[in-house]
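Help needed: design a sequence for this.
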């Protein structure tokens, strides 16, 4: 586990049947259990209707970015559901507010890496992604989110 210079603590890809496909954590080992719990609990948000209440308008069915689905005392949890049912969950450090457009872009980049890896003829569907190349791409995405900290 490495500590990124960016704000992302974890990037997870969950299969259509809620099986983990890839979980990359960029945090201290003492936070692993908390992150695992938050990942598991956030899966419920993917099954709920897309309108998140009176504050948010009804989302377009083609809009697969769920936005900030949950906030804990340490992390913001962002969700994205691909057209094939794969769920992308990203935990960011709850230090500063991250623009939704930035997180939408990160989620779409992770989705692109996922779909590229699914095209690999040696990949077994719905199994863990262990390709060093894919993991390196995911790490690059995690390190790419730079949000200035305002003091």
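Sure. Designed sequence:
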């Amino acid at each position: 586990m490495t500590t990124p210079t960016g704000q992302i603590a974890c990037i997870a890809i969950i299969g259509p049947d809620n099986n983990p496909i890839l979980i990359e954590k960029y945090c201290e080992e003492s936070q692993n259990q908390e992150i695992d719990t938050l990942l598991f609990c956030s899966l419920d948000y993917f099954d709920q209707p897309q309108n998140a209440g009176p504050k948010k308008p009804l989302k377009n069915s083609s809009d697969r970015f769920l936005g900030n689905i949950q906030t804990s005392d340490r992390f913001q949890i962002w969700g994205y559901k691909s057209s094939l049912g794969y769920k992308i969950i990203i935990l960011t450090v709850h230090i500063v507010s991250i623009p939704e457009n930035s997180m939408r872009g990160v989620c779409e980049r992770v989705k692109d890496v996922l779909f590229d890896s699914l095209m690999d003829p040696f990949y077994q569907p719905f199994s863990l992604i262990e390709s060093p190349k894919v993991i390196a791409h995911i790490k690059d995405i995690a390190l790419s989110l730079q949000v200035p900290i305002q003091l």
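Residues 100-118 form the longest helix (19 residues).
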